[in-house]
Amino acid sequence: MRISPISHNECSELLKRVSVGRLGCSLDNQPYVVPVRFSYEPDCIYIFSTVGQKIKWMRQNPRVCLQADEIGNSSNWLSVIVTGTYLELSEPQYHTAQREHARELLAQHPEWWRIPLSEARDRSLISSIETVFFRIDIKSMSGLRAMPEGVEGAH
Fold it and tell me: SS in 3 state form for 9-45?
């Protein structure tokens, strides 16, 4: 197997194709990683969530990362890591139009709301769960491709 870096354009294309990744945050030197649905635009990633540990931690330490991938098999995959800053799209700093833009982008993916709301054990309480739209302002993005030996980079 050969592993090689991919271009910024290839990273962007992967983030446009996939909608599930793993969000990493940390607080007091303790990392925390959770699956999230996301929508990518150049320079930022939009995510919908319920308020829980990750939101509480990111409010205190806005430095985050997101990892997304496509896996064909153990020797054929693409992986992208994005680092950036958490920015909550809440009033009064952000107008309804910015939150609506995030919702419209996320709604392009089926069941974009399912991961955050699946945590609700009592379905009657869903309407009382505090939700938030946020974005990651991208600081850096890099990726890797694994290919079996003897296979060239055609894709």
Answer: HHHHHHHHHCCEEEEEEEECCEEEEEEEEEEEECCEE
pLDDT digits (tens, 9 = 90+) for 4-20: 999 999 999 999 999 99
The residues near 103 (Cβ < 8 Å, ≥ 6 apart) are: 48, 133
51 DSSP 8-state letter:
S
Structure tokens at 78: 């693409």
Under 8 Å between Cβ of 15 and 32? no
Q: Tell me the DSSP string of 86-121.
A: EEE--TTTS-HHHHHHHHHHHTTSTTTTHHHHTT-S
CATH topology of domain 2-120+127-147: Pnp Oxidase; Chain A (2.30.110)
CA 148 – CA 151 distance, rounded (Å):
6
pTM for this structure?
Answer: 0.81
Contact 20, 68 (CB under 8 A): yes
